[in-house]
Amino acid sequence: MVKASVLGASGGIGQPLSLLLAISPLVDELSLYDVVNTPGVGADLSHINGTAKVTAYLPEGGAGLEKALTGCDIVVIPAGIPRKPGMTRDDLFKINAGIVRDLATGVAKYCPKAFVLIISNPVNSTVPIAAEVLKSHNVFDPTRLFGVTSLDVVRASTFVADVVGGDRTKYKIPVVGGHSGETIVPLLSQISPKVDIPADKLEALVNRIQFGGDEVVKAKDGAGSATLSMAYAGFKFAEALLRAGNNETGIVEPTYIYLPGVPGGKEIQDTVGGLEFFAVPVELGPNGAVRATNPLVKVSDYEEKLLEKCYEGLKGNIAKGVEFIATQS
Ligand code: NAD
Ligand code: LMR
């Protein structure tokens, strides 16, 4: 029996993501939690004749979060405010840092063994926040905490197909680093199946992958950021974990993890200037991350330059998250 929970379930991402989980045969129970509107979203989804039983909770002074999380195997967190034009993801830190801290505290108390998937931005900092909270409750298992960077991977294959043609569902591109602007590094030299990207198109393509989020924020013109493509990408990652949980082998997905705590991660940490959190392709198994793979050993000179900028940006983002929790206690 698999119980999944979405925290922030009434939001732009939360609703379509909950729909996808509710109709997944891999989920037996889906609990929805948000500070508003969960009774309505829950009633709506509960009429679907899928396999998942849907339950919905409001805070109820803390009892709602406890009920939503108790017995959970997988918790997906898209709670928090989205960007408006002119904002960076880091501008969301002020509000979202506290939201993720409180929800991670709930995970530590009520379902400490669950897989935790963080979508709330800025992911580069909110994942370190969740890790620090779990550590402070002595329940941190780095093989079970994931920053969701799948949207960058989805965008990379779509945008590559836009340039070179071919089946956009078939391109696999390791996207490493973090999840904001220059910290997003698509390793197009390792694209599979192999295609030649025209040299005069390379920089614009990389820039589009790095700043794809801005494209949506601009188009939505004040009404938020990517929600539907994110729900799709977030579901794909959750589904990959659930499939691995069913003993399916050979599942590898890029995700932002705590390198020192995942097999293969320490070696990568040495390559990335000691950064503790970094997105790399990770092999998944029934207990979460099995092994971090290292695509950095064969990057091009151009990608090496992109990586240098990424390391610089990530360092500050990670420190900001860690410090946020350190200064609270
Ligand atoms: P939204 O405003 O539509 O929804 C957010 C939801 O979170 C709302 O329903 C709100 O009530 C809820 N919420 C706020 N505080 C909460 C709390 N303490 N507990 C539970 N729920 C709470 O926003 P959205 O468009 O769904 O985006 C959500 C977050 O996801 C944003 O931070 C956004 O930047 C981020 N995001 C990340 C990625 C990624 O690739 N990782 C992609 C897109 C968006
Ligand atoms: C995205 O990449 O679409 C998300 O991180 C949302 C944003 O703020 O761009």
Automatic annotation (TrEMBL):
Keywords: NAD, Oxidoreductase, Tricarboxylic acid cycle. NAD(+) binds at G8, A9, S10, G11, G12, I13, G14, D34, N96, I119, S120, N121, M230. Its EC number is 1.1.1.37. Coiled coil: none annotated. Residues 149-324 form the Lactate/malate dehydrogenase C-terminal domain. NCBIfam families: MDH_euk_gproteo (TIGR01772). Homodimer. This is malate dehydrogenase. It comes from Orbilia brochopaga. The lineage of its organism: Eukaryota, Fungi, Dikarya, Ascomycota, Pezizomycotina.
